[in-house]
Amino acid sequence: MKTNNHNKQLYRDMQEAPDKYSDQEIEAMMDDLDQVPDVDEAWQQFAQHHLPLVRPMHTWRKVAAILIGILTLSGITIASVHIVRQSQHEEVNHGDRLRDSAVLPANHEPVPVIHAKAGPVVFDNVPLDSIAKDIATYHHLDMDLQNEQASQLRFYFVWNQEESLQEVIEKLNMFEQVNLAVEDGKLIVK
Fold this sequence. Notes:
By secondary structure, the protein is of the alpha+beta class. 52% of the residues lie in helices and 14% in strands. The strands form two sheets. The chain has a three-stranded mixed sheet. Strands 1-3 form a two-stranded antiparallel sheet. It starts with a helix and ends with a strand.
């Protein structure tokens, strides 16, 4: 197959002076056009002229690049987990410091601290006074049982600790014989 530049020159000459070429030369040129070019050879020529700086990367370099990427992502992940855990630990400690530094009245007895995860607590067939005592303790309140009959009542109740004290009291007060209220730092069962 003739080079591209040679073919271009022949085409120009044919256009300018078509009488100079015989039918056999024209047929030979047409046969040249019908031939499938050698792509590998063409790429080699292109690469030599246009890509002198590009060199194939060795396999070990590719593997090293992949490992460096994986190690970098692993380091970022570990650092993220460490930062999240540290911030959660600081939030818990800050909450403990605020609770411990609160000033309590002189006649107030220490309230046991419940370190339970916030979430639903299920009371199944539990007396109302036990439910009220747990809720009062969780919210750092005293409990005052003014209705002795209320301690005989048993309930199935799901207490979501993420809800406010007022929301929990409203839900319990929906039961027919229950009347709870918060007054003077006490949860009162009336």
